[in-house]
Amino acid sequence: MWPTYSYRSEIDIVEILGGVPDTIFMHHHYNNRSSSYTPNNGLHNNGACPVKDYSTDWVRFGLDWQPTYVAWYIDGIKCGQFNGNTTTIENGPMPVILHMMIDNQWERDWGSVLSSQTLVRQLEVDYIRIYRQR
């Protein structure tokens, strides 16, 4: 998710490098994207969430974005949480962006490029739910 008015922060609910489907990267980039938090500790680590091949079945990814924290979930398990305040957590509108990117520099840097790009033909999303507290 990126802010609608400037690109000073970013919340990545989920990013998966093609060659490592057991690692679900979750990030919060803030301070004009010069600072970052992630529950992950490198490859094959999902914070407090299980490490398994997430490409074999449907998975529920979640994000709880509040004024004082951002928390990531996989199948209802909290993977990690960033604690902050109005200076470190975005408080304006942010659109949800879904896309499938393959063979990017990040994948090449981590040695996680798919063995064949023809393996990826579609991105399947069953549903997206967004809730707003009142």
Write the topology of this structure.
Elements: E1 10-15, E2 25-30, E3 35-37, E4 61-65, E5 69-74, E6 77-83, H1 105-109
Antiparallel strand pairs: 1-2, 2-3, 4-5, 5-6
Question: Keywords, please?
Answer:
134 residues, mainly beta, three-stranded antiparallel sheet, 1 helix, 25% strand
Major sheet description? 3 strands, antiparallel
Would you list the SSEs in sequence order as H and E?
EEEEEEH
What sort of overall outline do the alpha carbons produce when their principal axes are compared? globular
Number of domains: 1
- Proportion of residues in extended strands: 15-25%
What is the subunit arrangement here? single chain
Report, as a whole number of angstroms, the end-to-end distance: 21 Å
Structural class: mainly beta
Cα gyration radius (Å):
15 Å
Instruction: Determine the mean pLDDT.
Output: 86
- Please count the beta strands (DSSP E, at least 2 residues each): 6
**Number of continuous helical runs:** 1
Adjacency order of strands in the biggest sheet: 1-2-3
| Residues in helices, as a percent range | under 10%
Low-confidence stretches: none
Explained architecture:
- The protein is mostly beta strands.
- The protein has one domain (10-119).
- It has one helix at 105-109, and strands spanning 10-15, 25-30, 35-37, 61-65, 69-74, 77-83.
- The strands form two sheets. It has a three-stranded antiparallel sheet, with no helix packed on it. Strands 4-5-6 form a three-stranded antiparallel sheet, with no helix packed on it.
- β5 and β6 (77-83) form a beta hairpin.
- The longest helix is centred in the last third of the chain and has 5 residues, at 105-109.
- The chain is globular.
- The two termini are 21 Å apart.
